[in-house]
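Hey, weird one. I pasted the DYW domain-containing protein sequence into the form twice and got a warning about non-standard characters only the second time. First submission, copied straight from the form history:
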Amino acid sequence: MASISKICLFKPFSLSFAGSVKDQTLLQRCNFPATCILREQVPLNNECRVFARMPERTGTGVSTYLRETGTGENGDYARNDLDISHLISVLKFCGGEGCLEFGRTYHGLIAKTGLDGDEFVNTSLIDMYAKCGDIDSAVMVFNQMPRLDVASCNCLISGYANCGLFEEAFRLFMNYESWGNKPNSYTYSSMLAICGTLSAIEEGKQLHAQVVKMQYLSETAVSNALLTMYCKCEAMADAESLFERLPQRNIVSWTAIIHGFYQHEGFEKAMRLFCLMRESGIEPNDYTFTIALASCGNMKNIDNCRLLHGLVIKKGMALGEFVGTALIDMYSELRETDDAEKQFKGMGNLTSKVSRNALIKGLVQNEKANEALDAFSEMVRKDAACDEFTFSPILKACASLPSFMSCQQIHAQVVKANFDKNTHVGSSLIEAYTRCGSVEDAEKVFSRISAPDVVSWNSVIKAYSQNGNPRRAISLFRRMIIKGFRPTGSTFLSVLSACSHSGKIQDGQEIFQSMINEFGVSPEEAHYSCMVDLLGRSGQIEKALDFINNTPIKPTASIWRPLLAACRCHNNLRIAEFAAKHILAMDPNDATVYVTLSNMYIEAGLLENAENQRKLMKLKEIIKEPGCSWIEVNNKIHKFFSRDRTHPESEKIYDKLKQIMMLIKGTAYSTNADSLQVKEDFCLYHSEKLAVCFGLISLAAGKPIRIFKNLRVCTDCHMFLKFASMITDRVIILRDNYRFHHFNKGGCSCGDYW
């Protein structure tokens, strides 16, 4: 036993990042720790090696292993025959593999043979239990030890840290000297890692002072832990100062400081340090390249990125799982999706779940939703594993289209993969169903999330706010607060929007005041805009103007626009001209301002003024965005423009429109025949009407028709859709550029307050 020293058993050394794929995946998901303290490997005996290779470790396998090694019920080892190094090896194996029950079996053997008084064995037991997450058993073994040494204390500190019990770790550290122990380099490395996790900069600085006093700064593991701590605490000046004074800098030191600057968006500094590292004779590893590629991508310099890509190829790392994935991320950040796809295809069989997720995320970020859905379909065809990092971005793709059928299909995959209770995936599903106008499905998803967070609550409140159920939105908002969740700016925006859409002026004003006074949330541009809309939509034009004039921020075009829309709705030409002047001063090419004023001048009989607006648009070459509506049928998006006859089914679509118009006229669609004639001339062939008629001839009877439009729906089309829902006995859901309208049996969810 003299050959096994505790110092050797727990000797810290720097992580080389050449571990298993599983290890590297975990590193990638855990904010890229720059250093890691690992236990030195102890050789396993032949039986343990065979057991470790077993694909499934069943109860029979464990029993066979114990019997063949002479440690089961039929093979009692005498204390003198039992190999303690073998015990330590097996306990180490159990901790690494998470085999808690197997470890407990060996603990029983240890107690039976009287080896539970051996400090090496007890230290290994503490380590095993801590790694398996059974911290209570680790503490029990620790408390029963006749003598506590630094190794056993270090093991328990690591266990506390792994279980998130940081207070207990600090308390244990403070008691070191009372047990006659002095912290060693491993102790300080562990404690500095905890300070970094907690962003406990003051405690970290105190540990730094102790490290200097104990002369541990020359040990790279400790100095690297210090660097990482300062980086995580956002103390980059301290980190840089420490780095410059380090007596020795290895790859981990350089990577730690480079990663620190990358994390805090110091991309240029990160790249300068990357170059200095190479000049100093230290070549980057996979992990360093990953950070450098991410920094370079964020700098948006395509030439430098290609040079770095060339260096990666020269080093033979371009097709590796992690550097290859970093290249996909880099090109996606540069909006070079063709290069990202080329890199992905070049990886061939080396592509993984991580690289596939990176490609999907990049395509979604670059507004290539259909391509992202194709990439996801390819994953499903190959039976590739999906996780929350797959589902969240692909659901954003469904929401951006939006595609209700794709959303349902991916929801089925989510359930199949057992992610339907995941908070992040659930929030993405709620958002996707909301954008598709299916608030019922959004509510069902919310009810199944195991631990909804603020984002989940915000998503479901937004669903009801946008889909014409303000009472439910406000009710959920109050319930959220009762359950102890603190509302964010996004929460208040959804609730204020709900109040605006329903004319709840007093509720909206009270909620706005509580946002500032009770919850300390500072209003942003969108909140002020929503309040202007709340007042203006209800006809309180003068109050809306006063509100704008008294905002603590300079009113932007986004704050003036709802006032102009309210003036259009309530025929207040004087304030409309005033609002338009302010909008055009900030956004002179806003076509909606010219069109709104032109229409208001026509209604006021000021035809010359209206013509001037049209001339100004022509002179400034301002083109109004054409109205466009689209509908999804059989997994295909069909787009329509006003008076569009390019669709293959145009003849049937126009026949259906005429048929519905005849039925509507018979139900007194308009009490003013002249007004109706004017509306027919200008509005009869608007895109949303064509899309609805295509839905009527293409979708099965009774199936809801979901229409999406890029502009605000006009009054005539709104009335048409109400009557069409009654005549055809169909639910028609329309999402314009502001909100959802659910038409059913001649009514609309907006209550004509829109």
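That's the output from the first submission. The warning seems to come from a hidden character in my clipboard, not from the data itself. The chain is about 65% helix and 5% strand.
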